Automatic annotation (TrEMBL):
Stored SUPFAM superfamilies: Concanavalin A-like lectins/glucanases
Keyword tags: Signal
InterPro entries named in the record: Beta-glucanase-like, ConA-like_dom_sf, Glycosyl_Hydrlase_16
Residues annotated as domain GH16: 25-296
Lineage of the species this protein comes from: Eukaryota, Fungi, Dikarya, Basidiomycota, Agaricomycotina
Protein name (Swiss-Prot/TrEMBL): Concanavalin A-like lectin/glucanase domain-containing protein
Signal peptide range: 1-29
Native source organism of the sequence: Lentinula lateritia
Pfam families, A to Z: GH16_XgeA
């Protein structure tokens, strides 16, 4: 059972103001840090799936934690302190009726509600013929897709562009009037593919992503919509490049998102429940392995031929290299419910989730003080004309 991140008080700033078409987009949210998944404790707050791939019917067996560690499918790189998650590339797999190779699927113990922000800094995303990696969010409590799904990083084979998508029950759409930089591929979120936006910035997937030093993806889950960004390594906003695990996050310098799923076309509170984070790598399956798709995404022959054999060299690039994943809530005081213990964001003083083991009233006070300081900074940094525009818009939005 997932542990839900709870909002214990009030939202003190509007999350995101989306201005009318033709005007600018003002991000006015300050987010308080909740948890950082990184370093030696990266895997301590995740559950391993430990079963066959029964979601995409890919040709993998997802291992448990002990197998992942013993086969070095999940480990911490001692040189970079990054988390490595990979497909087995040493075992000799023979042709058989069922051909599966060991891989990894992990899910966070926490579930994040509307009002959350997720940032992942990754230096390498799995790629290669038959390879299908995903970093995504899945709603808890109800059968898929009744609690919603958010695909943040997902592509296949030798594609060079990432794709973003939502999956929901009927009635949720990607509006064509969204202010975003990505290309709309599908608008109906209840279809098999979901409502899909393709990244237009270069090097968002594949070998180009790795050669460019990776980059950062972010997802904002808000009542006004779901927004997703990508920045290559050399183009990170200062709010991200200068942040650490305890820094509040200000979205003011983030610019236009790649994908913007506005609530006027999809009621976010209706279609999305608290979301767990998931990282996985499958092989072939109902997207990467479809013959017509496989042969149109830089590959030739049969997808299953990659799975058979030793996996070397085809799966030498089938791995994640993750510096950190950080989660936030746009609140003055927030807690993570972990068993019977409530943890304030201010008590997360290091990159290790293990440090979040006790509750402290002084920590809550510090969180309030940090949030108030960040809010004050934002207020004083905006010009009077920006605030006038915001106030006018708030007046307009009130009657929408």
């Amino acid at each position: 059972m997932a542990k839900t991140v709870s909002v214990s008080t009030f939202r003190f700033l509007p999350f995101t103001l989306l201005l009318l078409p033709g005007l600018f987009r003002l991000s006015a949210a300050i987010y308080t840090p909740i948890r950082e998944y990184s370093g030696n404790e990266f895997f301590s707050e995740w559950d391993y799936y430990g079963d066959i791939d029964n979601t995409t019917w890919g040709n993998v067996d997802y291992v448990d934690q002990s197998t992942g560690a013993s086969q070095r499918l999940t480990y911490i790189d001692p040189n970079t302190n990054h988390a490595i998650i990979r497909v087995d590339n040493t075992t000799n797999i023979t042709a058989a009726a069922t051909v599966n190779r060991n891989s990894v699927k992990i899910t966070t113990k926490d579930a994040y509600p509307i009002g959350s922000l997720v940032i992942i800094d990754t230096w390498h995303i799995p790629y290669g013929c038959s390879v299908w990696p995903s970093f995504w969010m899945l709603g808890t409590n109800l059968l898929w897709p009744n609690s919603g799904e958010i695909d943040i990083i997902e592509a296949i084979n030798n594609l060079d562009s990432n794709q973003y998508a939502l999956h929901t029950t009927s009635g949720c759409f990607l509006g064509t009037n969204s202010i975003q930089s990505g290309s709309i591929l599908q608008t109906n979120c209840s279809t098999g593919a979901g409502c899909v936006v393709q990244e237009k910035k270069p090097n968002s997937f594949g070998s180009g992503f790795a050669q460019a030093g990776g980059g950062v993806f972010a997802t904002q889950l808000d009542v006004s919509g779901i927004y997703m960004w990508f920045w290559p390594r050399g183009s990170l906003p200062a709010s991200i490049s200068q942040a650490n695990s305890s820094s509040p996050m200000n979205l003011a310098d983030w610019g236009t998102p790649t994908a913007a799923y506005l609530s006027n076309a999809c009621n976010i509170t209706e279609y999305f429940q608290p979301q767990q984070l998931i990282i996985d790598i499958t092989l072939c399956g109902v997207w990467a392995g479809v013959p017509s798709i496989y042969n149109s995404t830089g590959c030739s022959g049969q997808c299953i031929d990659n799975v058979i054999g030793t996996g070397n060299p085809i799966y030498n690039n089938a791995y994640w290299d993750i510096a950190y994943i950080r989660t936030y809530l746009a609140t003055a005081t927030t807690t993570v419910t972990t068993g019977n213990t409530s943890v304030s964001p201010a008590s997360l003083t290091s990159a290790s989730p293990a440090s979040a083991s006790t509750s402290s009233s002084s920590g809550a006070n510090d969180a309030n003080a940090n949030a108030a300081t960040a809010a004050s900074t934002l207020v004083h940094s905006l010009s009077w004309s920006s605030w006038l525009c915001a106030l006018v818009l708030l007046g307009i939005l009130r009657f929408c």
